[in-house]
Structure formats: C-alpha cells, structure tokens
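Appendix B, example 12.
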Amino acid sequence: MTARLNPFAVAPALMKSWMDISIAIAGSLEPRLIDLVKIRASQINGCANCINMHTAEARQRGETEQRIYLLQAWREAPCYTDRERAALAWTDALTRLSEAHPHEAAREALRARFTEEEQVKLTLMINVINGWNRIAVGFGLWVDTAAAQAAIKAAAA
C-alpha cells in the first residue's frame, strides 16, 4: 500500500501533537490491556496497518499468539480476564456507535472493573485508536514494523 497523502509531512505540528497525546493516553493504563484495545478496534475498523503494528507490539510485550488470534471472538474465548472483557466490550460499543446497539451492558461491565478515572482513560484510548484507524485507512498509510523498530533503536542510541 502506498500512502495517498503523508499527514506527518503535510501537517507536522498537528501530527506531532496528535502523536504526543496518543502516547500519553496509551501510557495511562496497563500496556497489555491497551494492546488488546488497539488491536480490537483496528479489527472492527479494518485497519490493516494498525492490526499489523499493534499485534507486533503486543508480541514484544509478551502477548500470546492464542490471545491475539482469538481476539475477534473474545466473547467466546476463555483466555481473557473480566477486566479485559469489560474493556473489549466498551471498545466494541464505542467503535460501533453507528450500529445503535444498546451499550448499557458494556457500561455496567466497565463500571464494575474500572475506576471512574480509568473509564475516562480507556474511553480516550478507544477514541485515539479509532482516530488513528481513520488516518491510516483514509490516507493509505503503512508502517513497516521492522523498519520502525530499527529507527526507534537508532534514535535511542
């Protein structure tokens, strides 16, 4: 896939701000939970770039292949915690707003497993990944994960 437009080149200051807030929000809850949310929203939105990138990141943090593969069927898979299930239900509900499904069950599960502050943090994270999905799909972005990791290592050296 070739990018139709590079938003980082066209609007660098705004994209830097978007990246900074994305990183801050992603760091506000446990990393493995955030990984699941990013992957799940990206699956729903059909964002190949984000699925590719976030599954690679999840593996680096020790996520299992089984849990990554079963994420599309998380409701039936026994390998997720109640907290993860609440986060995934909330991710599904907010990512599928246009389907007008009742969200009260997802909200109740969220309230049972997350503090009010964590509910806000999770909701912001879901908004961020949905935003990234729309940027990546809309502009045809593709990040080569190996090249991105090499660039990060080079920058850190």
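Residues 23-156 form a domain with the AhpD-like fold (CATH 1.20.1290.10). The CA atoms of residues 14 and 20 lie 10 Å apart.
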